[in-house]
Amino acid sequence: GAVVSQHPSWVICKSGTSVKIECRSLDFQATTMFWYRQFPKQSLMLMATSNEGSKATYEQGVEKDKFLINHASLTLSTLTVTSAHPEDSSFYICSAFRGSSYEQYFGPGTRLTVT
Amino acid sequence: RKEVEQDPGPFNVPEGATVAFNCTYSNSASQSFFWYRQDCRKEPKLLMSVYSSGNEDGRFTAQLNRASQYISLLIRDSKLSDSATYLCVVNEEYGNKLVFGAGTILRVKS
Fold first, then answer.
1. Of B91, B99, B101, the CB nearest to A102
2. Per residue in A77-110, pLDDT tens?
3. B110 to chain A, closest Cα gap in Å
4. Which residues sit opposite B99 in a β-bridge?
5. Residue A59, number of CB atoms within 10 A of its CB
6. Which of A44, A59, A93 to mutate to test the interface with B (most CBs of B within 10 A)?
7. What is the CB neighbour count within 10 angstroms for residue A57?
8. How many angstroms separate the CA of residue A95 from the nearest CA in chain B?
9. A10 with A91: CB under 8 angstroms?
10. Strand B11-14, strand B104-109: pairing
11. Chain A residues within 8 A (CB-CB) of chain B?
12. Is the separation of the CB atoms in B78 and A14 below 8 Å?
């Protein structure tokens, strides 16, 4: 089956530093990937849609200059949290569609803790 | 009003019980509907898609009522391994944007 991987699976960083999270589709090409964030006991919230070869589309309220998204190839999208603060601590999950299916395949998530 | 609303639970049921979850959505133009399962500190995994005609997969049955904008999930003969958070998910009319409910917690106990 389709597999989406994320790296790292967890990261602890100091306030003010930047963290890059990678999302890869391992056995299919993904022209579109999605980045979600989930705070404890809350639902997944879509942050942005990552489009291969073009700019990402950000959801309302998500700062594009703080959450930099790059989708340089059909199998890789990266999310960089710049100048991270403790309130950015969360579970970040990426996903991708495979072909024309409506099913989204999710990566295992990255747990970010900013101290 | 939230776009997708679910009873957060938790639903505490004994093994073998039948349990039903409900979900309502606000966008009448929504096209696709799903139930995902999320275990603690893990990513969501697709449980089943939901069709207007209803669909069944083993012990799981999903129903969609477009007129009432209501989705349900029925789990029969609950197993301990069914304990998880069940997410109601709706695909918006345009694009591939999924909107997630906050989830319903199920705890199956022996």
1. B91
2. 999 999 999 999 999 999 998 766 667 889 999 9
3. 25
4. B90
5. 14
6. A44
7. 17
8. 10
9. no
10. parallel
11. 32, 34, 41-46, 49, 91, 93, 97, 102-104, 106-109, 111
12. no
Q: 3-state class of A68 per DSSP? A: strand
* Residues 6+ positions from A42 with CB-CB distance below 8 Å: B102
Closest approach of B8 to chain A, Cα-based (Å): 9
Any idea which residue has 């579970």 for tokens? A91
Q: In residues, how long is chain A?
A: 115
Token pair in block for residue B27? 């966008």
Q: Which two tokens stand for residue A3?
A: 């597999």
Q: Alpha-carbon distance B87 to B107, whole Å?
A: 14
Query: pLDDT value at position A99?
Result: 67
Confidence of residue B2 (pLDDT cuts 50, 70, 90): confident
Exposure b/e, B40-53, CB count within 10 A at least 16 = b: eeebbebbbbbeee
**B97 to A103: CB separation less than 8 angstroms, yes or no:** no
Q: Which residues does chain A have with pLDDT short of 50?
A: none
A113 HSE (CA, 13 A, CB side): 6
Q: Count Cβ atoms below 10 Å from residue A15 Cβ, excluding itself.
A: 12
Count how many Cα atoms sit within 13 Å of the Cα of residue A25 in the half-sphere of its side chain.
25
Q: Which letter does DSSP use for residue A83 in this model? A: S
Between chains, do B46 and A111 touch, taking CB under 8 Å as contact? Answer: no
Kindly indicate the confidence band of residue B94, based on its pLDDT and cuts at 50, 70 and 90.
low
